[in-house]
Amino acid sequence: MDRAVAAARRAFDDGRWSRAAPAYRKKVLHKLADLIEANALELAVLGVRDNGTEIGMALKAEPGSAAGTFRYYAEALDKVYGEIAPTAPGILGLVHKEPVGVVGAIVPWNFPLMIGSWKLAPALAAGNSVVLKPAETASLSLLKLAELAAEAGLPDGVLNVVTGAGSVTGEALAMSMDVDVLVFTGSGGVGRRLLEYSARSNLKRCYLELGGKSPNVVFADAPDLEQAAKVSAAGIFRNAGQVCVAGSRLLVEESIHDEFVEALSRHAAAMKVGNPLDLTTNIGAVNNLTQLEGNLNFVTKAIEEGAEIALGGSRIMQDTGGYFMEPTVLKGVKPEHNVAQNEVFGPVLAVTPFASDEDAVAIANSTKFGLAAGVWTSNLSRAHNMVRNIQAGVVHVNTYGGPDGTVPLGGVKQSGNGHDKSMHAFDKYFDLKTAWMQL
């Protein structure tokens, strides 16, 4: 890791990329996007073998998303302008945007290529050098991405991928005195350690996306309750629930509670759990045994606290090996229950009824998280009010999941700070420099 950071620093300081013409950087990043598309199946399969995502979802969410992300920032990089300040006569105030230097990026195992690209593409487009540390259990697709970046013509040292345990390579990256910005997606516990490492080293800026406990609020006047049930099931159970924005808390208006839970459970039960390399699979594998055991412990604790199992709740043994779990629906969950307060990161849905708009907002905002949310209603005023009042970085209305790269993703409260995606992602990777000139 120390050698990788040193290589990134040399590459940044000598200007081989940081001072290269925008047209050149654009050409290289477009070439990388072409290579990602040309190698999409290999990249997807590498990821599936690592993290267990069902292949149908992986093709779109991993190489498909990554290629689009690199194209977006390749096109955007020469549209970022400085500013001329409206100052007094005889003074010229200029605001320059300059690359920050060496960016350290630590990404999780659930969508390594997609989330890695959210960090890499804007950082590289801005002219920075990057050292990327993948999760221990999902590094293959990002190692392949580094090979493709070299093939695309990215200069040596500009992108470095270093594998290893978080306690070794991750800590070394976060403690480095030569890393200027650290970006991270993962757990709150690790995020707190990264802030400590920043304080103990060079006070590097840290941007953290720390997961969520996202409420999906269904009103009786939803435009299509059957469609809402189907989409809500996919919104929690695809990728075995291992999605940071997963709608893991279902809040249902009391008057439709029973029928909606039945409809959602029916759609969930129809989803095929199995070999993630099988094109007919809807729900793939849990990433590792520790995660599976944690998921099952959440179910056990929920039952102890008074919840009931409406669907699932158990491990599924597969002849392919690996770790699989039934899509699980828990009803009768109260807002204070453990499963309603803490991120499971697995195929476990906590269902809670609500009586009014105010009740829904109070329950939705009753956790420490604030990453995403969903609202299902035909009432335009209600939709706007819920978007305004729910504490979340992303609020879906009459859908769940799917915002593309044109809009930012970030959280509030203990879901983190800073934004991935859209032009706002550049904010993390540029420094502002003022030039104050007497004419």
- List how many beta strands DSSP finds: 17
C-alpha geometry = globular
Structural class: alpha/beta
CATH architecture type of the largest domain: 3-Layer(aba) Sandwich
Indicate how many domains the architecture comprises. Answer: 2
Q: Radius of gyration in whole Å, from Cα?
A: 23 Å
Uncertain spans: none
The major pleated sheet works out as: 7 strands, mixed
What portion of residues belong to β-strands?
15-25%
Distance from N terminus to C terminus (CA atoms, Å) equals 47 Å
Arithmetic mean pLDDT: 97
Q: What is the helix tally?
A: 14
Which percent bin holds the helix content? 40-55%
Task: Write a brief caption for the model.
By secondary structure, the chain is α/β, with parallel strands linked by helices. The protein has 14 helices and 17 strands.
Topology:
Blueprint: H1 2-13, H2 22-38, H3 40-51, H4 55-76, E1 83-85, E2 91-99, E3 102-106, H5 112-125, E4 129-133, H6 140-152, E5 159-161, H7 166-175, E6 181-185, H8 188-200, E7 205-209, E8 215-218, H9 225-237, E9 249-253, H10 257-269, H11 289-304, E10 308-311, E11 315-316, E12 324-325, E13 328-331, H12 338-341, E14 348-354, H13 357-364, E15 372-376, H14 380-389, E16 394-397, E17 430-438
Parallel strand pairs: 3-4, 3-6, 4-5, 6-7, 8-9, 8-15, 9-14, 13-14, 15-16
Antiparallel strand pairs: 1-2, 2-17, 10-13, 11-12
EC number: 1.2.1.5
Active site: 209
Protein name: Aldehyde dehydrogenase PuuC
